[in-house]
């Protein structure tokens, strides 16, 4: 009996995409205004923490060829194609918690999170 091994190719999927709340879009626009060579923000994931994955935000000066682009009110969010299986459908928000202001991620694929909120599992 022959066994066929299937490979996972992110390009084969129809993604729901990511959304930006008005607060997140406003903050990204503010960052872009402060750095004229910045064209947006990239949201990716990396293996880290006790739950498995963590979000990674970087400024973007030159998009990568495999980046998917999500825009809202002039704000640009770039997502590497290989990150989509972990964050597809995520809403990106920007909130104030006490003295802190930070991006928050409402990820429907996250099945668990660590106690400190730094990582998630799918």
From TrEMBL:
Gene giving rise to this polypeptide: sufA
Stored InterPro entries: ATAP, ATAP_core_dom, Fe-S_cluster_asmbl/transfer, FeS_cluster_insertion_CS, HesB-like_dom_sf, SufA_proteobacteria
Annotated protein name in UniProt: Fe-S cluster assembly scaffold SufA
Keywords for this protein: Iron
Domain of life: Bacteria
GO molecular function, one term: 2 iron, 2 sulfur cluster binding
Record family assignment: Belongs to the HesB/IscA family.
One GO cellular component term: cytosol
Domain Core: 18-118
GO term, biological process aspect, one: iron-sulfur cluster assembly
SUPFAM superfamilies: HesB-like domain
One of the Pfam families matching this protein, by short name: Fe-S_biosyn
PANTHER family for this protein: IRON-SULFUR CLUSTER ASSEMBLY PROTEIN, PROTEIN SUFA
């Amino acid at each position: 009996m022959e066994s066929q091994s299937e490979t996972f190719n992110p390009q084969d999927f129809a993604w729901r995409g990511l959304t930006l709340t008005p607060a997140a879009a406003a903050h990204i626009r503010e960052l872009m205004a402060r750095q004229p060579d910045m064209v947006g923000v990239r949201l990716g994931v990396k293996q880290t923490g006790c739950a498995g994955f963590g979000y990674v935000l970087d400024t973007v000066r030159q998009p990568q060829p495999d980046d998917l682009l999500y825009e809202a009110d002039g704000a640009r969010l770039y997502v590497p194609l290989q990150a989509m299986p972990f964050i597809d459908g995520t809403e990106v928000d920007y909130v104030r918690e006490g003295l802190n202001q930070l991006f928050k991620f409402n990820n429907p694929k996250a099945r668990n999170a660590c106690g400190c909120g730094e990582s998630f599992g799918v």
